[in-house]
Specification:
The chain is an alpha/beta fold. Helices cover about 30% and strands about 15% of the residues. The chain has 3 domains: about 180 residues, Rossmann fold (3-Layer(aba) Sandwich), CATH 3.40.50; about 170 residues, Rossmann fold (3-Layer(aba) Sandwich); about 140 residues, ABC transporter ATPase like fold, CATH 1.20.1580.10. The strands form 6 sheets. Strands 4-3-20-2-1-22 form a 6-stranded mixed beta sheet, with helices on both faces. A 6-stranded mixed beta sheet has the order 9-14-15-7-16-17, with helices on both faces. Helix 8 packs antiparallel against helix 13 and helix 12 packs antiparallel against helix 13. It is globular.
Amino acid sequence: MGLGYLTLDRPTRTLSGGELQRVNLTDCLGTGLTGTLFVLDEPSIGLHPRDTGRLLDLLRELRAAGNTVLVVEHDETVIRSAENILELGPGAGAEGGHLLYSGPPSGLAQIANSPTGAYLAGRRSISVPNPRRPCPEKDHPWIHVKGATCHNIKNLSASFPLRRLVAVSGVSGSGKSTFVHEIVHKTLLHRMGRAVENPPSIKSLKGADEISDVVLVDQSPLTQTPRSTPLLYLDIYDLVRELYASTEEAQSAGLPASAFSFNAGAGRCERCGGMGYEKISMQFLSDVFVTCPACEGQRFQPHVLLARYLDKSIHELLEMTASQALLHFAPRENLTPRARECQEKIVTSLTLLAEVGLGYLRCGQPLSQLSGGEAQRLKLVAHLAPQKKDKETSKKGRDKNSAMPTNTSPLLILDEPTTGLHLDDVALLITLLHRLVDQGASLLVIEHHLDVIKNADWVLDLGPEAGAEGGKLIASGPPETIAACRTSPTATYLAPLLSKTPTRSLRLHEEPAQHHPKKNGHAPLEISVRGARHHNLKNFDLQVPRNQMVVVTGLSGSGKSTLAFDLLFSEGQRRYLDCLNTYARQFVEQLEKPDVDSITGLPPAVAIEQRTTRGGRKSTVATVTELYQFLRLLYAKLGAQHDPKTGEVAVRQTSADIVLRIRRQLRSSKRLDLLAPLIRG
């Protein structure tokens, strides 16, 4: 896995995203199982293009051992290295869920309505900004870091411009997260008078006076409660409730704003508690969710639903997508000043939601149903939305395209914002990042995605290797400077994208498709799915070949995770649990039965999902990989205890052995001191 430099006592909180991802893979990849379905959720997250080749070698070893490897992935290298590709689309949310293609990678580029095929064939691409923003050393704000020491970074000095898009690149474990999170972020927070745990050792940091605030968008997961929705997460549902409470129907019925909350208040359905469905617990079977018979899934009591704002009830609004709600709250005449102000704030957040490609999300959709890419972008929207809101101290608004004041430059730190994003979504993200920079914000982005790096105004490349061999600044400057650096591992992959005749550098690890002869016997050669309708899947049939590496791709939110995890993995686990006796099943969480007609040829399944939690203070590399348990056993059973002063080995002695030893000592010393604890009372 390329993690030989990690020590076993290394706290997991100090690991980078790529290191943590590979550490979590070691358990399942080293099991030695055969005839198993391995379902992986974007294993290339946090990996440098060079490290992706090592990952592919491991996946090929799993396949060669007789396993079926199903990978949900957006990385072009992994897609090209697959033997079979499943693409879902063509859009996201309700516009997705269709099976666009199933077959070898060579045929995907010929599909006209395939977003992935368009990028593989070169019909679409993310262009390089022309001209690139200049980064003058004079008359421009810079951050100068001098003599920084933390983890594998020793006495590092680096500089990067403010009010620009700055990318930090390098192989996994080279010190990117340490430099950005531990050094830059913590030092700036400490300078602003905020509490910081274990501030880094640094000689000086200049230019902090040019920064008004520091906002960190890391990889920590969103809440998984089904009661949290996009409107609640963006903190605009209070404005929606205020608008509905101002209607004539609500005022005549005496309904306050709290009556339009499905999480609390007297307006929600009393039977289901505002959920819209009821959970029926089965003792030995999976739980069943049925629509609430009282409110019929509308979450609210009938008299609350009678209140209509702009001819829509609160339930109808929650069923709208963000794009539909954006049109619903468009500026209108005959509005009160307060209603106009509320609608402007709602439109501001919904506009940003649509700009990052999440306009298909329903306003009342539970966050627990979002895919990894959707959750990451929603978190990005929540952090970036304040940059577009009007100042609370000013009654007059500011145009969203107007620049920020010259003395204000918030620093936004993004940790791999392309996590879970399709190339189409990456293009939207890059456009949004450039727009923020044009408004005066400073962006510091940890990223491996080459399209983001080539769009940066300034790049800090750390390396050259990982661990103790990293932590050095290899090169800094525009992307063209990094591409020309011979000692930079990133240059190998970045240079072809910046050349006059760009060629995809991501095909270095591509393996030609291999022919697998059919096995004799009655074992099925493929997994057959009929009538897949779970979540947004559109009732399609599918055949997944076994004993091959299969990649599931498509736009973020198109149904990839639903197919791979909620359908194939969950059904495989559920069937395995059904083989256990009723006593054993009561101690295991029962998985929901997916909405599908039939699945045949499904082997036992193992899932390796994204794990972005860093663990507690006592969590180390040894405990995460479970090596610590084996070390404890070895030392307890085979270890020999020694005297800490003399080094004499401690041996087991009987009472006769102890008497014999004392007699020997008496012969030589003629004296014996007997000591015992003094017991009082």
